[in-house]
Amino acid sequence: MANISLCMIVRNEEEVLARCLDSVKDLMDEIIIVDTGSTDRTKEIAIRYTDRIYDLEWTDDFAAARNYSFSLATQEYVMWLDADDFLREKDSEKLRELKQTLDPEIDSVVMEYHLAFDGYDNPIAMSRRNRIVKRSRQFTWYNPVHEYLFIEGNVYLTDIAVTHGRVHQNTKRNLHILEKIIEKNGSVEGRDVLYYANELADTDRLVEAVEQYRRFLESPVDFFEDNLMACARLSACYHQLGNYELKLQALLQSMAYDIPRADFCCSIGQCFVDKEEFSKAIYWFKQAIAQDEVPNHFGVLNLICWTWYPHFQLCICYGMEGELELAYEHNEKALKYLPDDQNLLENKNKLEQALGMGGKPG
Questions:
Q1: What is the pTM assigned to this prediction?
Q2: Structure confidence at residue 357 (pLDDT)
Q3: Contacts of 178 (CB under 8 A, 6+ apart)
């Protein structure tokens, strides 16, 4: 059986820490909490679960704090979570099974990271993370913000999911850290260019964000998922700025880094819907449907683009083209994913009347 140390860095997490620890407390062989300056009840809550609580002076460096927390672990494997993460019951049970069966040759266990949900509690946005790593490999965290583990060796991909239940809103903390780096060094480099662009976009400094995304995309490709993210975020900036031609160009640039992905195909299709060029939109939404498997990427994936969304859009597009049978067909396919959706049910009713069905087709 694999023994696991849970290592967390926290600060002012009284609203969410108990939820996180309750979801994993019976699965961890030790729990290590590194507090970087809480002024609320965080440590009072943490002590209910562990006596391994340490104070660390905050230096605007998440990687340094993560590395310190990992250095305190004593078990064979190390798992990390943020305080606003938790495991749902089904995922806790999967992790319990994994502990019993994990091959000792595995160096890293990758888990899904569910970021948003629909009304049926299905994940609609996700990424993946190296979530459990072998302590003896001494893997290191990098980057002061948006820190990441550099992993080599045997990686095991699982469908175990960590759910992100964010409470805190954007405080501009990460932006301030990056601006301090720029003040000290004159600029940011490498992946920090992408992270700086993201922070600028999140605070509506769109023109500056565009400049940084373009700078990042002009650099050599190190992690293609980062380039895909840059293309997606750049296209969103252009959309907000009202430059729809450059939005489309940013989306098409994604194909320089990977085969067409359903979420990019849907975004390109939407560009043509906005231009009322429905035959072109249909082509791209059909391309999205052809990407039937969600890729094993570490970047953020918009999961609805692999399920109901392209069918819904094809219903609209075929309807605008007067091909009502095809519109009905794709509305039915979307309903298989969202059987109680009022918009889809209304579409169904209108199309049945238009087609003279008078009810469900035989």
A1: 0.90
A2: 85
A3: 145, 188, 192, 195, 196, 199
